[in-house]
Amino acid sequence: ACLAISLFSFPFAVDIVRSDIALDKQKGCKIAQHPDIMLELQREKAAQMHLVLLKEQFSNTYSNLTLTARSLDKLYNFADCSGLLAGRYSSRGGSRTDKFCLFIFIFSEPNNYRTLIGRSVNGSQLGKDYTQLRSLLQLIRTYSRAHLYGPNIGRPRKNVIAFLEGFMKVAGGTVDAVTWQHYYIDGRVAKVTDFLKTRLLDTLSDQIRKIQKVVNTYTPGKKIWLEGVGMTSAGGMNNLSDSYAAGFLWLNTLGLLASQGIDVVVRHSFLDHGHNHLVDQNFNPLPDYWLSLLYKRLIGPKVLAIHVAGLQRKPRPGRVIRDKLRIYAHCTSYHNHNYVRGSITLYIINLHRSRKKIKLAGTLRDKIVHQYLLQPYGKDGLHSKSVQLNGQPLAMVDDGTLPELKPRPLRAGRTLVIPPLTMSFYVVKNVNALACRYR
To answer: Quick one: pLDDT band at residue 107, thresholds 50, 70, 90?
Structure first.
């Protein structure tokens, strides 16, 4: 299990540690019971932190943040008690296991330092800093096998590519994976129709190719991670980046990254300022939460090649046909005990304003299919912050209980009907696909 922490959100995370979960050395972990006013205080703290971050961003003045051993201990204890860690660790020494890892992303987009704080660092210098950090870690037994990731650059425009090249020349062999961030839209100008543009969805594919070209030039085969992704920048837009419509970009991101061999993506964020988060300020799941939950429940790590007949059209001269019906295929998750190994899962994005029909062929033709169709719930349409699964609204049963995610069985040989502007998952049962029988 891994814990990813962005230090831009760290003060709020520490407050959660202090108020919600305590570690008792004699009794182990326990959940502290607090009155409702504590939750209100947490919400106020989050709002205050949002204002602080905005003020620092626009004034280009940033306060110092000191991480003490006590702060890190509280963070580890919180993660341990929450079941996020496979082993236990203390900043003052103690046990550890190789299954434990902690990612602390200290800075974001170092290529933008001059704009943000009036100072700059080039890729070569940052690479030297990473190399020195690696040497320091290796001197300490506890950290000698720690993993290091960077440089966490922004969108790979020309100057950013030059920054990455300088970094890779010096520290390409030092980092365990190369990281970058991607935001699809400027959150200050986004509108709902932006989320339906195929040209926008394809911007990520272009970025992946640029990053891969640089990385493979200096360290062929080095892993690449998308360390930060959000549907919109600048904190996002209310009723847009936290709505059903944002799911088109999110699901396409997951499918595209997997198909390009990128196996780690860090989502910004679970609960934070702005509107790119997965739950609202009352901790109610937003559409992307349910989409992520279904993805984790149904999608395994093995990506499958698919062939879709009948979609190819010959474009007119000078015109590019961009696909509004996007289909990805994986082996069904091995951890989902509702399906035997060898089953496969398709997930489909339909950006058309009309329904589309898909007929499964070959060995898939006579198999029973389980449908998980996500649609907006309520009168707000694509702006909705609630979703329905196969026609039933999704909501928490209580504060700690998720609802049952029930599929709709489709008879063998039935044509899949994909409603307009929807996202869906289809588990083809008992295919006994050779690629999916084993890990």
So the answer is: low
